Amino acid sequence: MQVQYISAFSVILEVLSRFWPVWIALIIVMGTSFAYKKRLALYGQLFDSGVGIVGVGICLFWLFTAIFASTISPFDPLAQIPVMKDMLPGAVEPQSGLVYLFGGDKLARDVFSRMVYGSQIVLIIAPAATGFALMVGITLGLPAGYYGGKIDTVLSFLANLVLAFPVILLFYLLVTPGIMDTPIPYAMAGVFFLFPIIFFSVLFWTRYKNRPDRLYILLGITLIVGGWIYLGLVFDKDPLHIVHIDPNQLNIFVAVVFASSPGVFRIVRGLVMDIKTRDYVAAAQTRGESPWYIMLWEILPNARGPLIVDACLRIGYTTILLGTLGYFGLGLAPESPDWGTAIKDASRLLRSFIHPALPPTIALMSFVLGLNLLADSLREQSMKD
Amino acid sequence: MLSFIIRRLGTMALTMLCLTMVVFFLINLEPNLKKLAISQTEMHTSAEQLESWLANHGYRQNFFVRYGQWLGVMPKQPVTDPATGKPAQRFSFCNDPVVPTFSGVLEGDFGCSTKFKTTVASKLFPALGATGILMFWVLVVMVPISLLIGILAGMREGSRTDRVLSVASIASTATPEYVSGVIFTVIFASWLGWLNGSAASASQGITFYNFTLPVMTLAIYGIGYIARMTRASMVEVMTQQYIRTARLKGLSFGSVVVKHALRNALIAPFTVIMLQFPWLLTGVVIVEVMFRYQGFGYTLVEAAGNNDIDLLLGCSLVSVFIVLITQLISDVGYAFLNPRIRVQ
């Protein structure tokens, strides 16, 4: 069967028009943000610099791509259409008349659809893992920096222990098919996922200790929602079957959180050691506030600037880590459309075909670049104040 | 200062002990031992045969005994040959002892590689040498370029040069090795045909043709990071009083930068370059696998993929040692370069 091709120019046009829901959403969000930027505090200030606009734009682009993935991509990312094996970009699939915009890979899947669906995996795991790492790092970093002494020595030693592991070795040890037969990933998940619940419970407890009407509502919500997600993620026993995670995704998730929380810990610890010498902390101590109130409600809000910047950079770094995992074929399923796995598959065949390699590499690079630009302009804006 | 270094070395030894113990534990998990036994015996062996292979080769001894044997504080026992009942070598290809001996890492015996059928030392150290050559060229390329970019950008903060170079260095930190490796191979090997997309021939002899792509790929990720740190340090130095004084004295801008600013601005990047080694280690693994260069990273991947216990332990020991020793050098060197820092 002869396969038709469309020209390079129409490939570009078709790609642009495929992303129509993204463009509409981008215009709406960017437009409203720009119009109300005066009222949007730090986020609004991002729109004062070109770097900031580009950073926000790229991040939102991939966010909306992940949300509208099923509308954008013409094919199923796992579907194989044998005629289209190794087809060059712009080949028309004879049955449906739709175009393999970026060509087909060695298993005859649509490279474009795989790139679009790959964004979903990255945009779910990377920010979520960063969020958990932040919770773990903050909950441990606050007491280490505030109390110092023995707690600090022990926790810092543990953090340095993890940091001394080369990331790649850690992944080779923690993300293997064999380890899923042992209780290790579940035990680690059990420990890590406990931190957000502890964090929010202590947060509300210290603030509303003397106002039981508010306290019980907030604590109740935290424990019910937290416990529900906890059951679903760690034991896969969510009674309503909404919260669910694959065992190998859980394994990756835990490994990534484990690798990046010591970094957060070190930053939080350093910030706390600096901030605890300020006068308002001394004032709170004189008022007789409890140590955890001071840490969570006096110190933490004043450390948010550097933490937000670090979180942006860290999501980018986590994306790179996920790509590394995919590149070495660790954890994720071999047919998974994520960018790292796609790069691995394509890079083996670079001598014969280069077109399957470029879309995932450029996607990964642009997303991390967007996050780094965002972090850079956030840092610049917060330094102005 | 001396007591500081001694204390740090003590912490380092403790850290290495803990880490090797963790690695030892994780490699010796039951599924991994099963995998090893399956790969080391013939096809279609029954569960009992696998079990007896493991027991025969000493994998069923107590965890701490085995860790002690690897470390060299417990004597290594020879195995009993099931046919004759006499003590025999554990692995014949490594010249393992037939009498109980203390032979572990502390005695300089790194053990036996089950994948390559040789001693770990004879596999690991040539690989380290090969990676050393790669690292040397990466540093030769990376350090001058990144310092130059950082200084040019930080010299006049906010100028157009600064903006362009800053965005370029952000872009380079957003490009992990597996991305830049693919892009460079596509451009320089597939399209232009100038360079070789594989460095497999580099073990015979390094040429510009086969070694440029790995070096470039490894250097690009680090360049952006070091350049940004240099820029930040340079910007800070340029706002100092003594720079203003030097300018007001009537010195030219160029000589102020070279004579007054540069030396103070290069202290911070030194630390960053030293701390870059652990990052390079991950990069080395990716690049050596991607370009098929038989170095340390390639060995690590082979060891991990085949569950080669002693070789993987050797690799972890080396990499953890590199990470810790560079941290120590960076701390000591920082205090040495910057007299304002006093080590308590």
UniProtKB/TrEMBL annotation, chain A:
Q: Which residues cross the membrane?
A: 20-37, 49-69, 121-142, 154-174, 186-208, 215-235, 250-268, 311-333, 353-375
Any one Pfam family match given in the protein's UniProt record, by short name: BPD_transp_1
Q: Which residue range or ranges hold the ABC transmembrane type-1 domain?
A: 119-375
Q: How does it sit in the membrane?
A: Multi-pass membrane protein
Q: Which PROSITE patterns match?
A: ABC_TM1
Subcellular location per the Swiss-Prot or TrEMBL entry: Cell membrane
Give the family from UniProt: Belongs to the binding-protein-dependent transport system permease family.
This one is known as ABC transporter permease
Automatic annotation (TrEMBL), chain B:
Question: Family per UniProt?
Answer: Belongs to the binding-protein-dependent transport system permease family.
For this UniProt entry, which segments traverse the membrane?
Answer: 12-29, 134-155, 176-194, 206-227, 266-291, 311-337
Q: What is this protein called?
A: ABC transporter permease
Keywords annotated in UniProt: Cell membrane, Membrane, Transmembrane, Transmembrane helix, Transport
Question: Where can this protein be found?
Answer: Cell membrane
Q: Which organism is it from?
A: Mesorhizobium huakuii
Membrane topology of the entry: Multi-pass membrane protein
Source superkingdom: Bacteria
ABC transmembrane type-1 domain location is 128-330
